Amino acid sequence: MAIKKRHLMLGNLACVHGAIYAGMRFFAGYPITPSTEVAEGCARELPKIGGKFIQMEDEIGSIAAIVGASVAGLKSMTATSGPGYSLMVENIGYAYMTETPVVVINVQRGGPSTGMPTKGSQADTMQARWGTHGDYTAIAVAPSTVQECLTETIRAFNLAERFRTPVTVLLDEVIAHSREMVTIPEKGEFKVYDRVKPTCTPEEYVPFEMTPNGVSPMAGFGEGYRFNVTGLTHDTMGFTTNRPEEVSPKLDKLANKILKYRDETVKMRTEMMDGAEIAFISYGSVSRAALQAVMLARKAGVKVGTVQLYTIWPFPEKQLREICAGCKKVIVGELNMGQMIYEVERVLPNNIKIHSIQRYDGEFLTPMQLLEKLDEVL
Amino acid sequence: MATVKETNQAEKQKSDVMLQYLRPKKKFPSVWCAGCGNGTVMGAIIRAIDKLGYSKDEVVMVSGIGCSSRMPVYLDFSSLHTTHGRALPYATGVKFAKPHLKVIVITGDGDALAIGGNHFIHACRRNIDITAILINNYIYGMTGGQGSPTTPSKAFSTTTPYGNVEKHFNPSELAMAAGATFVGRTTVYHVPQMEKMITQALEHKGFSLVEAVSNCHTYFGRLNRQGDPVAMLKMFKDLAVPAARAKNMTPEELEGKLVTGVLQDIEKTEFCDEYQKVVDAHRGVK
Predict the structure, then answer these.
(1) What is the rounded distance in angstroms from the CA atom of residue A15 to the CA atom of residue A147?
(2) What is the mean pLDDT of chain A?
(3) How far is Cα B149 from Cα B110, in angstroms, rounded to an integer?
(4) pLDDT digits (tens, 9 = 90+) for A226-280
């Protein structure tokens, strides 16, 4: 077996390679620090494989173009950061409502507003769940290494295509701008999921049909199925409706097609949780510091472990409860003023004491800081 | 002169063509008021498409939000009824993803020029092969008669109750200045001209704009004492100045007039084609 070629690569660029591996053939974007290298990488790589890259006039145009391209049948992606994500959320809502698979990479930076463009953050955690108006269920995934930027982007596409829904990749600037060794997987090494297409005749096609798993087969424009797509609440044929008996089933469909399979969306990594009395709970760059801190603390005899979330939304309620069942205390580490902690507080039973360590000055949490916090709560 | 019988037959043929393109599963009537110009524009679009012989499967209609933007929902093509102001970037995604599709954008003065103004000028600049039909009725109809970017100075609307203090956009001139390669203006009075202009726009390679001046008698007409649909159509007839004649008129003489006809028809490289050249170069295609 040939030795696999490894590349020294930027986190943002690993997302591009992951997306291409997953079948992304359309990218629309707008420059914004610290995500710009994703767009630059797509501009370079996509023409080589017959894919499409377009720089739009703003982030609203970018998300609109990728939704249009996805409806036309191509796997599509955009990348941005906080201010751009804020501009995109209305049309991410359109993708939820029209059940259009797209992937949005949000390289989080300090905010609010223009904030700190070159500094990392995890302050869009809640925005990825609740950003657009109305009722819907969101999926968001988060890598913590450059290799995982590649693999989590593949997973984001698979989830988007499987559930016909937008998926956000929550990076933070720390990972996006790190350079690490990356192996680009061989074809077939990772499962690549493609959207289910209709097999019925065009006359029989019901574009938003209620199916047992909640996902309707999706035709592309120009493939012989003529149908209507609208952001207005619609019936199974895609036509506007205000009828109560059609409205709530549609909204239930948006939520249940994901929630029914939420266990299959969950991905987490646990280290040294055997017999752990204390657990760090974190995602992204914080998880790297947590792993280091836990290894050092274990050497000193402290019964501590770490839980890293790769799936942020839907929040892994049941799994987190099970893993932390033996803990007396948990420490939630975040690069914000406290967002994921609300979920942890909602999910864990009252007998577990919940502590937090939060940093929002633009610097990342270090293992030493986490050890200090551990010392404090012991 | 055509006889009554001949006229009736011609009208029946027209409505037969219309019926072929209406969506069989969509419930009617439409949301439009009786006498609305949107239906006239829809008829002209259908006849243009029918004349060109496009198959229903190769046409995609994209729209934003507003009265005119409801049009694609009624027609038997693939349709994307999007968010307010964003029809053009959605259409850009569809067209660029599948360049063989005929992409038509239906938009209004508020949708294209206020909330969607940035997308409008950039679609013109990019010269992507999309035909945009901008139905300009000088007002926001769906929300009940508010002032739009084309509401003339001193005109009344529910948000300009004392007369509009702002200046208005000229959509066709804006498109030409931004680089659109085909631009034409017509009105819902000039139906044969509209049909021909839409045909030309669809055949044109590059970004084409047809500004179709239309009547919102329900709001603009009523608030500005312009009367019923017939009175408004007569007004469009009186205000229209063919482009050839307008060339010899002073700006003062043209004040308040509607210059109609093809205003721009030039050739420039088209966006999807140019991108394909980049792809081909990478693949060694000569």
Answers:
(1) 9
(2) 97
(3) 6
(4) 999 999 999 999 999 999 999 999 999 999 999 999 999 999 999 999 999 999 9
- The residues that bridge with B210 in the sheet, in sequence order, are B133, B184
DSSP character at residue B158: T
Q: How far is it, in rounded angstroms, from Cα A234 to Cα A209?
A: 11
Distance CA A46, CA A58 (A): 20
The H or E element containing residue A198 is: none
Chain A: residue nearest B121 by CA?
A57
- Under DSSP, is residue A234 helix (H, G, I), strand (E, B) or coil? strand
Residue A131 has pLDDT above 90, yes or no: yes
Of B76, B96, B98, the CB nearest to A221: B98
Q: Enter the DSSP assignment of B243.
A: H
Half-sphere exposure of A226 (CA within 13 A, CB side): 23
Domains A6-183 and A267-377 share a fold: yes
How far apart CA A111 and CA A210 sit, in angstroms, is 40
User: Which residues pair with residue A311 across a beta bridge?
Assistant: A141
Q: What value does the mean pLDDT take over residues B21-47?
A: 93
Mean pLDDT along residues A353-357:
98
Bridge partners of A120, per DSSP, are A109
Domain B32-282 listed as CATH 3.40.50.970: yes
Q: What is the distance of C-alpha B190 from the center of its chain?
A: 14
Q: Strand pairing partners for A77?
A: A27, A103
Least Cα distance to B75 among B38, B24, B11 occurs for B24
Q: State the amino acid at position B207 in one-letter form.
A: F
Angle of CA points B90, B92, B95, to nearest 5°: 110
Number of alpha helices (DSSP H) and beta strands (DSSP E) in chain B: 13, 10
Residue B4 pLDDT grade (very low, low, confident, very high; cuts 50, 70, 90): confident
Q: Which positions ≥6 away from B212 have C-beta within 8 Å?
A: B37, B41, B44, B133, B134, B135, B136, B186, B187, B188, B194
Query: B115-169: per-residue pLDDT in tens?
Result: 999 999 999 999 999 999 999 999 999 999 999 999 999 999 999 999 999 999 9
Task: Give the tens place of pLDDT for each residue, A168-216.
Answer: 999 999 999 999 999 999 999 999 999 999 999 999 999 999 999 999 9
Q: Which residue out of B26, B61, B81, B282 would a mutagenesis test of the A interface target, given it has the greatest number of A Cβ atoms within 10 Å?
A: B81
The CATH architecture one would assign to domain A6-183 is 3-Layer(aba) Sandwich (3.40)
ipTM score of complex: 0.97
The answer to whether the CB atoms of B101 and A72 lie below 8 A apart is: yes
Radius of gyration (C-alpha) of chain B in whole angstroms? 19
* Residue at token pair 């502590």: A355
Where are the domains positioned within chain A? 6-183, 267-377
Find, among A286, A272, A256, the residue nearest to A357 by Cα.
A286
Q: From residue B50, give the alpha-carbon distance in Å to each of B54, B129, B225.
A: 7, 19, 37
Residue B44: is its pLDDT beyond 70? yes
Question: pLDDT confidence of A2, banded at 50, 70, 90?
Answer: low
Quick one: fold of A267-377?
Answer: Rossmann fold (3.40.50)
**Looking at beta carbons, which residues of chain B come within 8 Å of A101?**
none
Contact A71 B80 (CB under 8 A): yes
For residue A1, pLDDT over 60 is answered with no
Angle, in degrees to the nearest 10, between helices B4-21 and B37-52: 80
Inspect the interface and report whether the beta carbons of A68 and B92 lie closer than 8 Å: yes
Asked if omega into A112 is within 30° of 0 (cis), the reply is: yes
